[in-house]
Write a structure and sequence with these properties.
The chain is 35% helix and 16% strand. The chain is α/β, with parallel strands linked by helices. The protein has a single domain, classed as Alpha/Beta hydrolase fold, catalytic domain (Rossmann fold, 3-Layer(aba) Sandwich), CATH 3.40.50.1820. It starts with a strand and ends with a helix.
Amino acid sequence: MSVLRTPDDRFENLPGFSFRPHYVEISDDELGPLRIHYLDEGPADGPIVICLHGEPTWCYLYRKMIPVLTAAGCRVLAPDLVGFGRSDKPASRTDYSYARHVRWMSDWIRAVSATDITLLGQDWGGLIGLRLLAEDPDRFARFSLSNTGLPTGDHDINEAFHRWRKFSQEDPDFDIGFIVNLFGRGDLTEEEMEAYRAPFPSDAYKAGARQFPVLVPTEPDNPASEANRRAWKVLMQWEKPALMCFSDADPIMRGGDGPFMKLVPGTRGQPHVTLKGRHFIQEDDGENWAHAVVSWMLSG
């Protein structure tokens, strides 16, 4: 078993990204110590907002939102999931599972002593974040989601996702910068696309990114299905605020706010917003998501 670490010089002079890196080390029973990178911006005593990215991005995705949140007095913690960004990257695809991702991030939250959390989750940031919330609900004050879900495999997932999963397994290059641009508005600069490629100097570093799409529970007997069903039971009792900020043109997750609006009591009466953009809404309309979160937090 081996764990890779992207060289630091890959992260120098990235456009719009002058944030200072922070690290904690957690321990995995099989892999040993794992270093997790995160951003820690804003006043140390401000209300904590945790921004969780998804596939195949890293905390660079939140660079436009962080200044809005910190200007409102929030302390923003934005980690890189294991296998992404500046966090360590187990080299084998079999090192990654949904349950392991949840455990790794649970250990990270405890390591940074985060409580009274406002969770922001998009893509796998929601799939992982909602499991964290369901396993330790007292640690969270509220959550806001965009373009994500909590699948159990009991319902069909749309054809766009299946096409994406097929592409993720068969495309020989799996160019991360190209992918983020493709599933956004297509207006990233070459320098911004290079920033998304930065964590992955070669294909050897892409095991986590390649594996994520096949970990989504699409069948009811998936190893993660029962844990997600248990998480839904917690969400169906969630009375604290929950804000939906899905986008209007995401080919994969458009309409994904429906189950949350129907089943989660905390969504009722909240100032939900429809954002303008495709899957990577932090790029397309991130400032408006951040402003919506700030107004929502201040109102209650």
